[in-house]
Amino acid sequence: MSHPSNQITIERAIEVFVHAFSRGKSQYHPYLAEQMEGLWVMRDGPGRKRPRKIEVIATDLDPETVVDRIARASLGWHFLCDVRSQSDDLEAINAQYRALGYRKVSTEWLFTHDLRDIPVFDSEPCVRQIDNLTQGWSGIRKVRPDARLYGAWDEDFDYGWVYSVPFGTDAWVSDLHVKEEWRRHGFGRALMSRMLQDDRELGVSHSVLLATSQGAKLYPQLGYEIRATLQMFCPLKRFETRGM
Length: 244
Fold this sequence. Notes:
By secondary structure, the chain is of the alpha+beta class. It has helices at residues 10-24, 63-73, 90-99, 187-201, and strands spanning 31-36, 39-44, 54-59, 78-85, 102-113, 127-130, 148-153, 158-167, 170-178, 206-211, 225-235.
């Protein structure tokens, strides 16, 4: 159970997410994160022939204010992630965005962990950190210079993997994956447990992640707490959002 005095703020958790996520998408072309009028905007840097989608993050702002700021920034086609505390009326927020020309795409939950209490979960084979010298690892996930990669494997199978991406004194959990045929065998819990223990030993203060409804069942078992709901929206008409 987290202690309020050691709890990371939602604003800081979003900052960790935005910067770590952008770094992960910058391996072949810069994907930049910047603040514009109280919004986080993530998008490709100049020079990419086929730009990836623009993503806007808004935290605890009135929907009309968010849409007006996006229109003034002339962002064009984008996805909008609206982050709200659990106490907010999400249906009312959805209705406001619908009236402003947006449709809801998905919902995820923002979790944080203060690393004070980390349950220990093991697996067979055990979870190990992967580096460029690790023998036997043949998974599709590659070692990143800006992150730590953990995996569970033996001479026959790669069972799963997860990254810890540091940002300042905190860390973002990226790409937790257990192969479908090996789910419900404890590999997800074991991967996360080992990664979190290393985070704490390395001086990380908080771990942050986003989860779908399926993942949201796992993380409380490891000591994570739901801090906010992230709803993703996109314009109903590709080029006809207000002022665009």
